[in-house]
Write a structure and sequence with these properties.
By secondary structure, this protein is an alpha/beta fold. It has one domain (about 1-90): Alpha-Beta Barrel (TIM Barrel). Helices cover about 30% and strands about 10% of the residues.
Length: about 100
């Protein structure tokens, strides 16, 4: 949390919490801990899928890439079926207060 607080002190515009590699999910508990430690927008930066999106209730936003590409590979073109599944998952999220 000290790194997150240091970024806030240094006037960062927001923070991104990622998994250990491209496409690997961030730990929802870590996202919540960072969100609770700072007064900045906190984004989930990797591993977001339609199946796990709702686990990140404390996030202010998401960076989505691999999950909407053919075969889940970041360098492949967009997959319309995956894009639709992600859009539906976003639509099901409860709005934050």
């Amino acid at each position: 949390m000290e790194t997150a607080r240091g970024a806030e002190f240094s006037l960062a515009d927001g923070l991104i919490v990622t998994g250990i590699a491209t496409g690997r999910p961030a730990d929802p508990a870590e996202v919540a801990a960072v969100a609770g430690a700072v007064n900045l927008p906190v984004l989930v930066g990797s591993g977001v899928t339609p199946e796990n999106l709702a686990r990140y209730t404390t996030a202010d936003g998401f960076i989505v890439g691999s999950a909407v590409k053919h075969d889940g590979c970041w360098s492949n073109p967009l997959d319309a079926v995956r894009v639709k599944a992600m859009a539906l998952a976003f639509a099901r999220l409860e709005p934050r207060a």
